[in-house]
């Protein structure tokens, strides 16, 4: 069967075509049109601009996705579209587009949770599907940071989440403090590669608390105070040493975030006696996080999976993957299409 995925929850317009044969998922196309350049001058995503761009991009992105997959709409069996969480007006762009396609082509449409889609980005490259459940998911994106226990397809339990900033948001805010532009994750992690993570001592918020919640706003404020202090003390030579300082601050900050994320994940993995640990979300592109979590899960002999780099950020292939499993498990009705609505705060939910 062929599934068309549509994703417009934030600042990427993405459409993908998946083909599933004998339970094997193949990505025929996964087109992502990024709006980063449009939002960068504002230091974050501007919802009205995002909606305008989705409106403009959806049709050409669909055409490209179909062309690349050598498919046409007549061969699509199912449409999967993100319904939340995300920016409300941006979500409506995708949902209305999906509904129009569904009416014209008479195809079933299924609403997808964006966080579940991040989880399922792992299924796009999973080698051994039998070693997974119970699985512990660490979802780290620009809007969310959650530990989610998954006992089977569509069976989730949120163990903990951030009480304030998401991990990606902390990367973005620290980058903004250093005038490094938006989004912050890629530029901070690049700087961190050449920095000394032990140079500055930063807090590891909630590391020793016995729950699975996170908090990154205190760490972000600690970085702000650190920057102010460095700039005052070293004002004379600041220009000469600026790059080195940025590298060390980036490395120290990144290490603090990764330490907390990995320690809490490993503790939860032990407590819930899971078989596997799955990483996902935009921050899962972070090299230090990927390497550290891989090493730590290996010590516990747990199966570990992380999305291929092309599927770490927002994309429609992962959306379509959830669509397939909902279809396989008969978790929606064809008649649901008309009632499909968006929910900007949609939590991970059982299906
Ligand atoms: O999942 P995503 O693409 O969008 C949301 O659903 O939020 O995540 C975007 C977030 C941004 O905050 C971005 O700074 C962060 O992922 N990010 C990274 C890296 N690449 C992207 N954070 C840390 N290290 C990276 N290499
Ligand atoms: Zn996302």
Strand content: 15-25%
**Main sheet: strand order:** 3-2-1-4-5
Helical content stands at 40-55%
Average pLDDT, to the nearest integer?
Answer: 94
- Derived structural class: alpha/beta
Please state the overall shape, judged from the principal axes of the Cα atoms: globular
Distinct compounds present: 5'-O-[(R)-(carboxyoxy)(hydroxy)phosphoryl]adenosine, zinc ion
Number of continuous helical runs: 10
The succession of helices and strands, N to C, reads EEEHHEHEHEEEHHHHEHEH
Which parts are unreliable, with pLDDT below 50 for 5 consecutive residues or more?
none
What's this model, at a glance?
This protein is an alpha/beta fold.
Protein topology:
Blueprint: E1 2-7, E2 12-21, E3 24-34, H1 36-39, H2 47-68, E4 78-84, H3 88-105, E5 108-113, H4 114-120, E6 135-140, E7 145-152, E8 155-161, H5 167-177, H6 184-192, H7 217-233, H8 238-271, E9 276-280, H9 287-299, E10 303-305, H10 316-328
Parallel strand pairs: 1-4, 4-5, 6-9, 9-10
Antiparallel strand pairs: 1-2, 2-3, 6-7, 7-8
Helix pairs in contact: 2-3, 4-10, 5-6, 5-7, 6-8, 7-8, 8-9
Bound molecules: 5'-O-[(R)-(carboxyoxy)(hydroxy)phosphoryl]adenosine and zinc ion.
């Amino acid at each position: 069967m062929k599934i068309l995925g549509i994703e417009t929850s934030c600042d990427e317009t993405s459409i993908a075509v998946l083909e599933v044969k004998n339970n094997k998922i193949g990505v025929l196309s996964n087109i992502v049109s990024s709006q980063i350049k449009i939002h960068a001058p504002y230091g974050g995503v501007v919802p009205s601009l995002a909606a305008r761009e989705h409106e403009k991009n959806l049709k050409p992105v669909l055409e490209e996705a179909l062309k690349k997959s050598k498919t046409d709409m007549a061969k699509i069996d199912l449409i999967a579209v993100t319904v939340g969480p995300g920016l409300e007006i941006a979500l409506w762009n995708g949902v209305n587009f999906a509904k129009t396609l569904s009416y014209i082509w008479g195809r079933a449409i299924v609403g997808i949770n964006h966080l579940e889609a991040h989880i399922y980005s792992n299924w796009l490259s999973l080698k051994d599907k039998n070693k997974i459940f119970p699985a512990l998911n660490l979802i780290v994106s620009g809007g969310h940071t959650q530990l989610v226990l998954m006992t089977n397809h569509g069976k989730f339990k949120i163990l903990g989440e951030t009480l304030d900033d998401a991990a990606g948001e902390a990367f973005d805010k620290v980058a903004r403090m250093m005038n490094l532009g938006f989004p912050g994750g890629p530029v901070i992690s690049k700087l961190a590669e050449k920095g000394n993570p032990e140079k500055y001592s930063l807090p590891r918020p909630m590391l020793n608390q016995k729950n699975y919640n996170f908090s990154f706003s205190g760490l972000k404020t600690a970085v702000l105070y650190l920057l102010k202090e460095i700039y005052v003390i070293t004002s004379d030579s600041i220009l000469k040493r600026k790059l080195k300082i940025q590298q060390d601050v980036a490395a120290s900050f990144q290490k603090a975030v990764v330490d907390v994320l990995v320690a809490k994940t490993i503790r939860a993995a032990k407590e819930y006696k899971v078989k596997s640990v799955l990483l996902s979300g935009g921050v899962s592109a972070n090299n230090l996080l990927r390497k550290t979590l891989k090493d730590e899960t290996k010590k516990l002999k747990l199966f570990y999976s992380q999305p291929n780099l092309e599927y770490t950020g927002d994309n429609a292939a992962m959306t379509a993957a959830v669509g397939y499993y909902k279809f396989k498990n008969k978790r929606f009705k064809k008649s649901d299409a008309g009632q499909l609505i968006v929910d900007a705060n949609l939590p991970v939910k059982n299906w």
